[in-house]
Structure formats: structure tokens, C-alpha cells
Design a protein that fits this description.
The protein is mainly α. It has helices spanning 2-14, 20-46, 61-74, 77-85, 94-116, 124-128, 136-163, 170-197, 210-236, 243-274, 280-286, 296-314, 323-345, 364-393.
Length: 412
């Protein structure tokens, strides 16, 4: 226990050590997070009236980000499967960064749910009235918190084993949790999809295809973010990132995004060709309803961005380095956020069951709260990566006894 506490203290000190680029990045994220905290304090005082949500559109930017980030967290399993199930040695170290991303993202998800509640103390109702197993919201609480604990255990155990220069005990401590994490990763997104599709009063979500679309889009956006993260680590540290890992992630993104596009086309055919009675929400999203067209440019931009990104991924990249891959990954992160966030949540409330068309537009205070949570999540992820890289390289181990060694790891 003494050695473990010493390890935590050394990691804490290391998180404050870096070059000017590290300090600048952390300062920017801290300032944005503090602006978001200030905006949330205003929301606590004045209530959800500071947001653009109304009685007609009761879910907005917060739940849109929550939905998107749940997929990012689930996508970490796409590194776990080849690394431990198929024993791909190139991904054994890389998988830690995916698990760290899952930890940071799940914390962000919980924060977005918290700020979406006008009064955070209402969380107590989830425990006083734990309507299990009938309530999908109860299932969502269980799978989100369970996935957070599982990933905390896996990453903590792997990093501490590397710190002690010991091979992790895969049979007793690692593999069982990895197998559970695989099932749990799929479940967190499936349960979230069921939470929406089970609401009978919102026909826009009443599709059996919504769960597989959730998973397909998640397995495209999540690995895209990990691809960019690995290259940043390789660019600004001396940690080697296996090229095979990037190639494997590119293949995963291609397959997942192709399936996502196919499912979208199937859904659009069913909606528009049959001319169903509940087409109004979909029509509002893609073409608008009369003068109400707030989301039309956004969704068509997302369709164009995602299509272009998929084409770039299919192009051969032998002589182009990673430029096409990086461009496609950035486009997918943005495009899927629009499609899976605002393009999925808001249209379900327009028009209302009474036929009212009330459009939703986030307020500045609402945007600041969202940016603050994103900044805080990136801050957590940066700190965790900053600690992990020196441990994996062997610069921070149990043998480096003198505390001042931490200060000499300026850019590890």
C-alpha cells in the first residue's frame, strides 16, 4: 500500500511537468473549463431557463453530447478485442490509451447528464425509486457506472504493473475484466439506444435499426479520435506508436462507417418511400417544415462531411502518408457529432404530439457549459496520457527512487 500511495504521489507531481506546449494546452483547457463552471453556476441559480430548452423540446445540447460521447466510450473495445482476444502484440500498449479515453469520456457523460438536470439533487430519486429492471433509465445508470469502474480497474492495473516492472496476471486479473468490458461496451450504447427507441410518444426514435446504427457510428468516431491521439503522442513524445495499429484502426473505421451509411440509407428508404404518418420529424430534419428549417443545413453538412470522409478512407494511402487518414478522422468526428447529436435528439421533439412546431437553439450559457465539460474531459485525458507514457517507456518505475527524477521528465 505504501508503494502504491507513492506511485500516486509521483503521478500527481508528473502531471504538472511539461514543456511550453503542454502548459499552454493545459492553460487553455483550464480557462475554458472554468468558464463552463461559471456558466453552470448561473444555471444553478436561474434554472434551465438559461438554456434554449422548453416544454416542447426538453432535450437539447446536453443530451446530444451525452449520446455522442457514450459511443466514444464504447469504441475503446475496438482496441481491446484485437489486443487480448486475437493477441495482437502491436496493440497491447495502445489499448491503454483507448481505455483511458473511455474513462474520461464516461465522466463527461455523467457530467452532461448532471447539468441536464435542473436540480442535481434529483439524482437521489434514481436510488430511492430504483425501478429495476423495468426502467431503461435505471439500466443506463448501471451500465455507465459499471463501465467506468471496469475501465478504471483495467487501466490502473496495467499502468501499475508497468510501474512495478511486472507482467500483469492475465488469467486472474486482466482477461476476465477485458471480456466483461467487451460485453459492457456494447451494452452501454445498446441500452442508450433502447432508452430512446422505447419512448412510444416519439416516433422519430421508434426504429429497431437505431441500436445497430448507434454502434456502427460509435465504432467509427471513437477509433478516429484514438488515431489522432496516437499520432499526437508519437509527435510530441518519444513513445513509438506501431504503424500496424493505425492500419488496423483505419480498417475498423472503414467497415463501421460503411455499415453506418448503409443503415442510414435503409432508414431513409423506409421513411420516405412508405410515406408513413410519423414522417414529419424526419422531414423537418432534412427538408424543414415550412419556414422552420434550423437543422437542415446542419444535417446536410453532416451527410456531406461523412460521405467525403468515407471516400478519403477508401482511397489508397501508400504515397500520401497519413494526411488523408487524419483528414478523414477529423471529418468523421465532426460529421458524426452533428448527425448523432443534434440530428438525432432535437428532431424527435418537433413537431410535438399536439402538432406544435417549436424550434430549439442553444443559448450562449448552454454552449459554455458544454464547452466547459469538453475541456474538463480533455484535461483529464491529457493528464492520464501524460502519466501513462513515461510509465510505459520505463522512465517512471519503482526503480527510479529519487523524487526529483519526476521533474526531469519534461516531455515524456
Amino acid at each position: 500500500m505504501r508503494e502504491y500511495l507513492r506511485f500516486l504521489v509521483r503521478c500527481f507531481r508528473l502531471s504538472f511537468v511539461g514543456d511550453w506546449r503542454y502548459y499552454t494546452w493545459m492553460l487553455v483547457l483550464t480557462c475554458i473549463a472554468l468558464l463552463g463552471l461559471n456558466a453552470y453556476c448561473k444555471q444553478l441559480v436561474s434554472g434551465l431557463a438559461t438554456t434554449g430548452m422548453t416544454d416542447q423540446v426538453s432535450w437539447g445540447l446536453y443530451i446530444a453530447n451525452f449520446t455522442y460521447l457514450v459511443g466514444m466510450a464504447a469504441a475503446a473495445v475496438m482496441l481491446v478485442i484485437p489486443a487480448y482476444v486475437y493477441r495482437n502484440e502491436d496493440l497491447h500498449e495502445v489499448v491503454i490509451f483507448g481505455e483511458l479515453l473511455a474513462v474520461a469520456v464516461i465522466i463527461m457523460c455523467l457530467l452532461f447528464v448532471t447539468v441536464d438536470l435542473g436540480s442535481p439533487e434529483r439524482f437521489i430519486h434514481l436510488f430511492l425509486r430504483f425501478n429495476f429492471p423495468l426502467s431503461m433509465l435505471t439500466w443506463d445508470v448501471i451500465v455507465l457506472n459499471g463501465y467506468l469502474l471496469i475501465n478504471l480497474h483495467i487501466t490502473g492495473y496495467l499502468i501499475y504493473s508497468a510501474y512495478r516492472k511486472r507482467e500483469p496476471n492475465k488469467r486472474l486479473f486482466l482477461v476476465p475484466f477485458v471480456l466483461v468490458a467487451i460485453v459492457w461496451a456494447i451494452s452501454i450504447h445498446t441500452v442508450t439506444a433502447f432508452l430512446y427507441s422505447g419512448l412510444g410518444g416519439r416516433p422519430f426514435w421508434n426504429h429497431a435499426i437505431i441500436a445497430p446504427r448507434f454502434i456502427a457510428s460509435a465504432f467509427a468516431a471513437g477509433p478516429a479520435f484514438i488515431v489522432l491521439t496516437l499520432q499526437v503522442i508519437g509527435r510530441f513524445t518519444t513513445h513509438h506508436v506501431p504503424v500496424n495499429a493505425l492500419r488496423l484502426l483505419r480498417q475498423v473505421i472503414i467497415v463501421a462507417m460503411t455499415i453506418n451509411v448503409f443503415l442510414l440509407i435503409s432508414e431513409m428508404f423506409t421513411e420516405f418511400y412508405t410515406g408513413a404518418d410519423h414522417l414529419l420529424s424526419t422531414h423537418y430534419l432534412y427538408f424543414g417544415l415550412g419556414e422552420h428549417r434550423a437543422l437542415v443545413p446542419w444535417i446536410w453538412s453532416a451527410v456531406g462531411i461523412n460521405t467525403t470522409a468515407l471516400v478519403l478512407l477508401y482511397l489508397p494511402q501508400r504515397n500520401r502518408g497519413l494526411w488523408l487518414l487524419n483528414t478523414a478522422c477529423v471529418m468523421l468526428i465532426v460529421g458524426i457529432w452533428i448527425e448523432k447529436g443534434m440530428g438525432l435528439i432535437v428532431p424527435a421533439f418537433i413537431p410535438t404530439p399536439l402538432g406544435e412546431v417549436v424550434e430549439y437553439l442553444p443559448t450562449l450559457n448552454e454552449v459554455l457549459v458544454g464547452l466547459g465539460i469538453w475541456a474538463f474531459g480533455l484535461l483529464l485525458y491529457t493528464i492520464m496520457v501524460r502519466i501513462t507514457v513515461p510509465v510505459l517507456k520505463g522512465d517512471l518505475t519503482v526503480d527510479t527512487l529519487h523524487p526529483t527524477e519526476v521533474a526531469r521528465m519534461a516531455t515524456a
